Amino acid sequence: MSQTFRHPEILEIARRDGRVTVEGLACHFGVTLQTIRRDLSELAEAGRLERVHGGAVLPSGTTNIGYEERRGLNADGKGAIARACAAAIPESCSVFLDIGTSTEAVATALLGHRNLLVVTNNMNVANILAGNADCEVIVTGGTLRRSDGGLIGDITTAAIRQFKVDIGVIGCSAIDGDGDILDFDVQEVGVRQAILARSRRRFLVADHTKFKRTAPARIASLADVDTFFTDAALPPGLVAACRDWGTAVDVARGA
């Protein structure tokens, strides 16, 4: 069976089951694992699926994919982005790190930094940076979202407003073609807007898969951040827009 015929059936299985696995599809079609990986990569490039560890899921415009799935999505790219972002964060400064797998990767990349004050609404970030004895960690408080260790809600937003940090680092769920930064959770959007408002410099960390997704709630625009760290070239229209807005774009490459 050619890929032309496999692709529609792969999408149908993904719609029916919520996700597909490389091994399951290889068994179903009687082809090699490499063949299925190639099929999934092509469907992902076309924006029809999102690659996750061991398989793929349907892209969603109304609900986010699961936290563990997000962790496995483009881990190498997120690592490169995190290292580039950490390199732009000097020692002896204050930083806000918000919810998300990309900001958690930044926390890991900051383990060697000295004399940092990190404020976070991400329990995973706090646990990571507990391993850096030269980093003071302040956790905002708020309503715990067990699915990803995030703290959200009015208490969180009020706590953030008590600070003015040197650098705020946020992630997002999607980036629209006009440069709007998007998310799924309205409470999380409010928290991120508060972070941007209380940071002297504003960094966005988001890998290239965010350009293939959509989400319903607007956080801000790329015009509102100082530096955008990503792992692939932006669409030409956004390159020109970022230049006009004065938003620096740092395209990180994997090791």
TrEMBL record:
The family database entries (InterPro entries) matched by this protein are listed as: Carb_Metab_HTH_regulators (IPR050313), DeoR-like_C (IPR014036), DeoR_HTH (IPR001034), NagB/RpiA_transferase-like (IPR037171), WH-like_DNA-bd_sf (IPR036388), WH_DNA-bd_sf (IPR036390)
Checking SMART domains in the record gives: DeoRC, HTH_DEOR
Q: Which GO terms describe its molecular function?
A: DNA-binding transcription factor activity
Record's protein name? DeoR faimly transcriptional regulator
Q: Give the organism the record lists.
A: Roseivivax isoporae LMG 25204
* UniProt-listed PROSITE patterns: HTH_DEOR_2
* Residue intervals of the HTH deoR-type domain: 3-58
On whether Transcription regulation is a keyword of this UniProt record, the answer is yes
Going by the UniProt record, its keywords in alphabetical order are: Repressor, Transcription, Transcription regulation
> Does this UniProt record's set of keywords contain Amino-acid biosynthesis?
no
